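Hi L., both proteins are below.
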Amino acid sequence: MDAMTDEPLAAAPPLAPPEAIDLRAEFVTSGLAEVLDELDTDLVGLGPVKGRLREIGALLLVDRARARFGLQAVSPTLHMSFTGNPGTGKTTVALRMAQILHRLGYVRKGHLVTVTRDDLVGQYIGHTAPKTKEILKKAMGGVLFIDEAYYLYRPENERDYGQEAIEILLQVMENQRDDLVVILAGYADRMERFFTANPGFRSRVAHHIDFPDYSGGELEAIGGRILGQMNYRLSPAAQEAFHRYVALRMVQPHFANGRSVRNALDRARLRQANRLFAGDKPVTADDLSTIEAEDILASRVFSGGIDSYPPLPAR
């Protein structure tokens, strides 16, 4: 009401749609460009994966632009499947995906909740539903990342409660897709069998993204980034030793891409620390920062052993 006349105030006229929208400018101002640049910085390689994220980002930008012109449409289905071997960056990309969706207004919070079967499935009657619903409540407004999702389905066990969790997930993925994005992750072959046995998931997952293994050169670059972030470096001889290490480790069992490289460098730092501690002279900053060849060559990989902990489950 107008305070002077007691007349009702006129409603503000609706905003007129813009004549045109500069999508390139929207790409920058939305923060999408920043997130994708950070992804390039954080992850070596993965060109196909980064390309798919850019495509999804473009779809969402266009969808948002259409809404500003009044070209309303059904909200896009954003549930995803990430397939690939361990250590290929699936969790990191899921985190960036949550940021992209938040920047573009498709989720309220933009946080990532990472779970496995044990977080969702109970061990007795009446235990699964509360566990699953509690996780979903925590994930609402963001992204739920279910690692090794195929373990939810165990048809060989008649008393398994995974099917109850699956049914709850399917209902939420359909009815609350405007407030939650679910990413199912795991080995490609097992995920394919999981989708075949659970067609409800396949029909709700719009984006299937495969994460390739890293090449030897990419793994060495990952190692260099890991060490650089901790103010370490490889001596020239250690670089050659690490090159040999990567080539040998890639063909051994339980290889986990970037995860195996990180574990190897953690052990190299342990050996370096013990080597320096056992020495009989003061150490310099250069000594403390340099990984030498002997710190790499002490790995069991060079004697045919498996230099990995903890071991990954056999496929």
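That was the first. Here is the second:
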Amino acid sequence: MVSQDSKFMAEAIKEAKKSLKEGGIPIGAVLVKDGTIVGRGHNRLIQNDSAILHGEMDCIENAGRLKGTDYKKCTLYTTLSPCTMCSGAVLLYNIPRVVIGENTTLLGSEKLLKRNGIEVTVMQVVECRKLLKKFIEENKETWETELEKVGFSTD
């Protein structure tokens, strides 16, 4: 499973880099069913002036309307620990497994996922952390504004 996880996390990182090239926050995700990517997406908050297009939400949206049984066979790969909204989407669609690139820059709602029986794997991929940290250093005000919107303190 580890080599599969690395392979699909690399795809999520590609999505994060797409967001960065578009002037957005470098967070990416892919949704995988039975070893095949069925959805991919990246953070589009800034690019689309969106309130909800986090990388995970964009990815799930881009997967289209899957059957309930399909979601139950999926793993969501995301470069950053998912927030409450994105974790809620995982719970809503019964996605049983989430693989996280890193959770030291920002710890999301992993406890919520685990309490609801979701398997959570944190890889601590250095590249995920470096991408986001560099963005934060170069866009401190933008990052703090986005955190404030979702109730995270920047103190």
